[in-house]
Amino acid sequence: MFENRVTDRIIYDREYMDRLIRENYEEIYKYCWRHVRQRETAEDLTQEVFLRFLGNIDRYREYGRLRNYLYVTAGNLIRDYYRKKKELPMKDAARESVRSQGEPDYEKKEKGWAGSHEESAEIEQTLERIRIQTALDGLSAEERDLVILRYYQGLKIRDIAAVTGAPASTVRYRLKKAEDRLKRELCGGEANWTEN
Fold first, then answer.
1. pTM to 2 decimals?
2. Between 168-187 and 157-164, two packed helices, what is the crossing angle to 10 degrees?
3. pLDDT digits 0-9 by tens, 23-76
4. What CATH number has the domain spanning 120-196?
5. CA distance 117 to 108
6. What are 127-174's pLDDT values in tens digits?
7. CA distances from 67 to 85, 143, 155 (A)
8. What pLDDT was estimated at residue 45?
9. Does domain 1-88 have CATH number 1.10.1740.10?
10. Which among 97, 124, 127, 98 has a CA at the least distance from the CA of 35?
11. Contacts of 186-195 spanning 24+ positions with Cβ under 8 A
């Protein structure tokens, strides 16, 4: 009965439906973008998540958080996207991301490169993002998804378990394994990950 009331409210209350989309759109977009690393593709995937949700609203049953349901839908669409492209998910996207950073404006620096402190800091941040992305590329798709859900999307272990369909203890174990691999890659295994 409860599920039908929520579904009915989404169907018949336009303001409620708009609010649900507004509240969840940015997080689902970020999740998609972190997987595909292309703005337009992430936007398309995010829109498709909400179109599928609204198109299948009559079959939706609220057993947990709506956002978890949307993450599951997004994950399925991302997997479908890569199946269609027949390429490894993050490696090509990371290369494209680096390319999309653009070439430096050499015309402004004809007399030699004497970048400001802000430019140096920006370059360091870009290099660090590339280093992290490269380390993430070294993870399996499952491990990468767990890291993205936990540290980029900020989901709790129980929510990740709901999204992935794995028990919380399995999620904890797999996440720890992924963290250890990232530590070895980024810091030689000496990094301290904080628990949230």
1. 0.64
2. 110
3. 999 999 999 999 998 999 999 999 999 999 888 877 777 666 788 889 999 999
4. 1.10.10.10
5. 16
6. 787 788 888 888 888 999 999 999 989 999 999 999 999 999 999 999
7. 27, 20, 10
8. 96
9. yes
10. 97
11. 186/131, 186/132, 186/135
